[in-house]
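pinned: reference chain
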Amino acid sequence: DVTLRIAGAVEGETVYATLAAVDLGILNLTGFEAPDPQDHYFGQRRLGMAFRDIYGRLIDNRDGAEGRIRQGGDGSAGLRMQSNPPTEEIVALFSGSLTVGPDGTVQASFDMPAFNGTVRVMAVAWSDTGVGQASGDVIVRDPVVITPSAPRFLAPGDTARLLLEVTHVEGPIGDVLLSLTATNGLGLGPFPQQVSLTEGAAARISVPIISQGATGVQVISVAATLPDGEVIRRDVTLSVAANDPIVAETTRLTLAPGEAFTLDSAAYAGFRPETARVTLSAGPLARFDAAGLLQRLDLYPYGCTEQITSRALPLLYLSSVAEVMELGTADDLNQRIDDAIRSVLTNQAANGGFGLWRAESGDLWLDAYVTDFLSRARAEGHDVPDRPFQSALDNLANAVASYPDFEDGGEDLAYALMVLAREGQASMGDLRYYADVKADQFATPMALGQLGAALAMYGDQPRADAMFLAGFAQVSLPVDATDAYVWRSDYGSRARDAVALAALAADAGSQTITLPSFVPASGVPVAEASTQEAVWSLLAAHALIDNPAAATLTLDGAPVSGPMVQVLDGGSTLSRVIENTGTRDEILTLTRFGVPQGPTEAFGNGYWIDREYLTLDGAAVDPSQVAQGTRLVALLTIRNTGAPEGRLMINDPLPAGFEIDNPNLLQAGDVRALQGVAFDYIPQMSEFRSDRFLSAVDMFGGSDRLRLAYIVRAVSPGDFHHPAASVEDMYRPTFRAQTASGRVSVVE
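pinned: its structure tokens
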């Protein structure tokens, strides 16, 4: 309970106040200072300086953007720190607005979690005629303080230890009885159930922990009964996860009339049950494996602007399928779309363009793709702020107005024209010029389809159909064996173009070709699908499927109404029987996701990755046994073995006993271990999380060898699984590589 007394209020005046209680350690880490409204309103101001220019008056606003002043410097946040949930509950409590009573006091009550430390209490009061503030530090502690120390996370099968420090601060001395329990995912080894404490004494207790296979957040509950009978409780949370690379396998089955298929635990055989998920679709959705593609997008772990957009875009139209797959309720899915809108807008630059990992511009195709998502979201009723959206459209209009002549390209131009046409801001003259004069110069079928879609939006169906026919003709050309090795600035592939062209033609109402027969029956394999291939396949499914119901199938004897999608999570003992009661064959598509059982083997297609550990002096270290407290250099080497260029994501999961020691990438000469080591590529993004290191690198031209290095420290004693490190071309996922998994032992 906190009592705040306010002096100086005018009689009869209503006074308001807020109170906050925050762990002082958090405030020190974040550099947060107590609110000071008096200084804000009455503090002395220093003179400011600003720049002004008239470039906005010099640039023709019909041809280019008006000049803008860009302010700020470090907002891009190139390096990001992310983490698993904290092992203990955070103290950051806020009262909200309170009304001060007639006696000049106000009280607030905070429900404090189990906490020992210093809390800063901060108060702000205000009325129509005055402001005030106060703050003070309060030490919060139990008579006997229990301080737990545990790894930040574990993998299934890990063994570690929980260190408990039991310290007498005040109150009676004597025997303290200890009781520890854990959720089913953790096993506890032997520990002393009683310790004797003298005045000011401390006892250190090491409790073995065994991760028994279950993943998710696990809890260890500690209860200490003091000599006077008081019971002190602490909860320690541990995240358990299998961080090896997840694989996907797709099987297509033909169900003849009268035949049945049973979906049960055999479907995820060969995968670790705690990581497995199986999707089964039938009827029209099975053609595209909509369930498998949605699941793949949902599992995609990275967060660049293109990937955030790709995860959210299909949810605008396939929410019913996502709900059946238990990806969220309607409200949850709407919230995810709204969160995606906010996320991509944080990467919007001052000119209205978008960057992949930060606010920047220069990628017109990405600008058009994100603006397309925002336009579609607005049309579906989601709240997209007017000013950022109009700024994005202005950026596309400016780019179209100043677009250079081309002989083999135009992918970004066509996309920008389509988005502008949907919003009624494209020039009909531009559309007809590009259709009549430059159609043969567009490099991809998708670009021709987008130009056709723009013309259809303006009612010029003959020209639109001509563009769609030209696009279908390009898709039908023989596939060059080198196509898969060509890097494309529009994040695409031949398969992406085919399904995108079908989706665009269907939306435009084009009758130029029988679209269902055009789209291959096998669709885009989930295991090989990039985010672009997945999202446009799902948009094609939405455009081509009038009714997703599988009317001739029964589920456990009952007719199926709505989308025929079933999901089975690893470890489930449920069984479902799907029977074909119709007169023609039905296709079932079953896709399995998960980490295969057994150790991960080294593998490479187009790339090869090696992971090694060095001392700070450069000596090679075998990580299978490391002394606690040792600092090591983790060195990742990626070699190009056949994929000439690509946008790469490097993922190096840590063993639970290691922590990243310093959130910075090392360069040649930073430590003796890296003397003479060449670092030829600069990452676009790097993240130092509590359980892994991630980095995105554009490997274009130059050296065929990429190196990254950072420092780790062996922190927690125990025996830990060491997941495989991997590299993947984000838009050609067949080009990927991984190391073998292993074991790490940290010796106390």
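why pinned: DSSP finds 17 helices and 39 strands in the chain. Confidence is low (pLDDT under 50) at residues 62-82.
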